[in-house]
Amino acid sequence: MRTRRRPSGRPVSFSAALLLGSGLQAAVAAAFSSVSEGAYRGTPSGLGLLISVTAGLLAGPLAGMLVGLVGGIGFIFFVTDGEVGGWVAVVLWVVAAGVAGAVADRYRQVGQDRDTAHASERRARQAAESESTRLAHLHNLTGRLANAVTVRDVCEALVDTAIGSLGAAASAVVLLSADGTELDVAASRGFPQELVARWSRIPVDTPVVLGDAVAQRSVVTVGSAEEALERYPMLAEFGDGYPIGAQAAAPLLAGDSLLGVVSVNFREGRRFSVEDEMLLLAIGRQCGQAIEHARLFEAERQARQRATRLRELASALAGAASPGQVADIAANAVVSILASRRASVGALAPDGRTVAPIAAEGQPPVGQAGGPIPLDTPSPTADAVNGGRTVLMHSPDEIKREYPDLADIFASEGDRACACVPLKASGVCIGTLFVTYAQQQAFGERRRAELQTVADQVALALERSLLQESREETLRLASRVERVRAVGEAMTPDLGVEEVAAAILSEAAEALGSVAGGIAVATRDGNRLEFISRFGVPDEVPSSVSLEAADPLTEAYRSGAATLIEGTRERRGTLPGPSLLGEPVEAMLATPISGRGRRIGVIGLRFDREHSFSPEALRFVEALAQEAGEALERARMFEAEQRALKRAARLQEVTARLARAVTTEDAARAILRGATAGVGADAAAIALARDDVPSLRLIPGTLARGTLRLQSPIEISVNDRSVLAHVYRNGRALWIPSQEVWKARFEDGWASQRDLGVCLYAVPIVAKGEAIGAMAVYFKQEREAPTAEDAELIRSFAHQAGVALERARAYEVEHEAAMTLQRNLMPEGVARAASVDADGRYLPATRGVHVGGDWYDILDRPDGSVAFAVGDIAGHGLQAAAAMGQVRSAWRALALSTTEPSAILASLERFATSVEGAFFSTILTMLLDPDTNELRYATAGHPPALVIDPDGSTRFLEGGRSVPLGLPFDMPRAQAHERLRPGSILVLYTDGLVERRDESLDRGLERLADTAARATGESLEDLSDALLDLVADERHDDVALLVIGSRRPSREFRRSFPATANELSPLRADLRAWLERSGMPVETVDDVVLACTEAASNAIEHAYIGRIGDVHVSAERQNGVLELSVSDDGRWRNPRPDDARGRGLELVRALVRDVDVEQGEAGTTVRMRVGVP
Amino acid sequence: MPDLATIEFEQAERASVVLIKGEIDMSNADRVLEELMARVGADPWLVVDLTSCSYVDSAGLSVIARVDARCREVLCGLRLVVPAESGVDRVLAMTRLNALLNVDRALEHALETAAEEDPRP
Fold first, then answer.
1. What angle do CA A141, A143, A146 make, to 5 degrees?
2. ipTM
3. B95 shares contact with chain A (CB less than 8 Å)
4. The whole model's pTM is what?
């Protein structure tokens, strides 16, 4: 706006002068109109002249002239009335006014010109001054810019210059964001802090001066506060601190790109000259370039820094040991190297389904709560891993497009761009590197290359650390496996499997933290799994399970692969019911155990916390399973070895006995004995073909309590529908699995032999290529077909049988006569007596005729006592046999009538002298009272009888000795007596058993005693067999053997046994036998057995806690009363009221009315009395 | 060591059948209990055949009592097969357990009853 000034500086305006002058002239004219002459005309003309000249002086020549003219006209017409003098005056006025005006104008003009010149000079000087000031500021700026390194420096220099050079109140520099959407304050001065704080990251289109400058890319000025407020209403919001007045904003340009704006604010209004604007623009450009340089410099510096940090990262990663450390270092470094907002390193889970963040820098991991990221839901991480490539999200829009579900999370976190790089080692993805940025990213080549470099380094380091970890874990576990192996190797064959199993389970528990575990093996029938070792499981939980049951253990066994439960969620399908390893089941692992290629069991572990099984842990458990498998195999092999050894021993035994067997019956017996015991059968039968008729002689034998009892032979036709006949005819072995099959196919055989068992295995007996019979073994319980080894054993027996029977038959044929004689001379079968058990044997000498002078006999006397004797008639052959027969008959007669053995001998002596061949014969005769166990005996030159006491010790009865019979001396016959202990065994024999050519008799006796001592516990027949083994090879003399066991129960029953429950059944059996023999009624027997068992059960349970002790049972029958007592040496613990044992004593009292319990320091005794008939 | 008792299983209409042959005393009562308990609840009825059981004392009675209690808990019915005048029968009579338990004299009777009736709570 320009102020109005009068042209040429005239003090009065044209119109004003004209009016006033005219007015004055008119006034004068009027005043002087009536005046006509001389002097008075002089005054108005003078006035008129004055007025005109004045008007001319003041308002310019034209004004003066016009005024003069107007005045003149007035003068002429009113004052001079047209006189010439008047016109002269007017002309004079006009001319004078004009001249005066022109002169005045000129004068003024000169003055004005001078003023103007002065003013111009002054202005020029001022401009020159301000120009130099500006130049100085610009120079300053340039200098500062030259020193400015950072963008900040530049901006600050700019602000200072702006304020200084323009005299502004405040100035600010804002820079445009890289994406051109925001402005951010880079430097400011003169503005209140709060305001400056508000100006960070304002959108570019904010309606302020700066915005316009950006939009127009040119200087924008505002001259005053009113203009400012009018154009930019928003400024009002800035408050009082904001200097609202004139404002100018200039763009900062570098080349064509706009980098930002500088704003200059004044307190008052101001006129911005062109120079001002030019200055601002120049400053803007200069600074723009400086900023550009500074940025480049910074970028370079950052790049150098990044390179350095990359190197540092590499060396730091090299030092990182664990994956956690690697991730930490990586996340930290990444944020600074890549200038990102956040970074996190995640590792791929072993199951390949999730990625779990290991470490993060910046703040908790982006987007998710920090837990594992599932790979089946779309996310940058999932896509990076699944696709194997880097996922780049350049802007929030892209994020929204690709991952709409995550867009909000990203936005709320303030992340505008992100990158997810898969970490690959050896071509396999092992994790991810996730990076976010605060601003949109272009992800140029350089940036992508950087990302990849960092990612590669991190991947290498991570892989290395994971491998290291896994190796260490493997080593740790391997050392555990070593320990287990050491235990396995130290295992002794007969103890070890349970120990090894327990060792394995404890290593597993330590290594993996399981709270319970067990090792189970499949039962022989293959239907169940049974635990051989278990820990952490309460006793109520069953220790075996059917393989049909749904359980991880059975599943692992069936499928042959490990079964895992890694959390309760997974349990539902795999383990619907209670687990075999107890509860709670938060996690479980079951692995099958194999040995020599077949599955033999399973190992299971239970955890009380959710557990994720790493590959190392699984390998570890598999290694343990392998150890278990080997241990079990070894145990099994050992067992099998033992069984094979036993079988071989049996076979040898049978062979030896068969070699001794003379008669078919002996052979049959030996075979049957071997076959049943060898394969655990309960009965056996041998069928031999007869020569004359097409039939088979079948001899069955049953095995009961260790003794084989032959049954009466029966005849069957070779065409009978019987297994043995069939096998004899066909020559092939046969297995009959059940009575149903047996009956269906072989009805006749089944009918007569079905009591022998429910299943049987039969083989033919072949000798010299010809079938001579058949043999079968029977089992009382259903079972699987015999194993290959058992079948082999039976066949071997059959073969041996064939050989022996053939021999026996040949023998029989050849020596029929002798045998007939012998059979007549010997007691048949097993020596029998009512009140004692006896077993008698005769073995002829292996050379020569097979009859001799050795004999034995036994008979019951009317008074209940038993007489028995063994004798040796000197010589061999029929003559000796005949003499022996006579002596024996004589003895029988004498034994019946005489109670004193010495008397018997005396009488025999007399008899013997009359018998041919009885010279120098020896005899041992004994008399036993089974009730009192009193023994009387006398021996005439015969080897002493051997007593085997119930405790297994042996001694010879040396008393009652006198010379052999038939000597020409008459010596008194001595007699001895002795009270045997109940259950003693007497062994009478002839010298053929103990005499050997090159040996002393004593040695033979010793050997006899040793063999007898070792053979205790078996049946009398077994004892006889064992003794006869002594002379299994060559015999120069025949052997007679009589073994007597006291059968008649004494009035006393005594047993002592260790306090374990297993002893109860044998106790019952023995007691029952004793009671039955005592002739008690069945019901009383049952009651007493029950009562005794209850009392004994009590003692077993209560008497000895934590130590071992014995229970003593004794019973005595006297005067119609049976007194039974059960005692122990321990201290009973008080039975709990709901104890089953409490009920036991109740039961005792119900059974036996007279019961008393004596409890003392030294032990407890329960006494019961029962009346017996 | 041979087992003191053999335990066999059969499946019948609405009943699990357990046949115990041999003797039951303190030495094997636990095992018998285990085997029986494993079958409680599998069917509406549990039939325990003691026909071939030659010996039962308080240990065996305790097993029976506990199995009976468990059966009641799960609303399963328990039936014992005990021939008249046998040793087991005498023991049950002496302890008056025969009045509290369902005792049949032959397996067929027990199975018939099981097929037709429901266990009473």
1. 105
2. 0.91
3. yes
4. 0.33
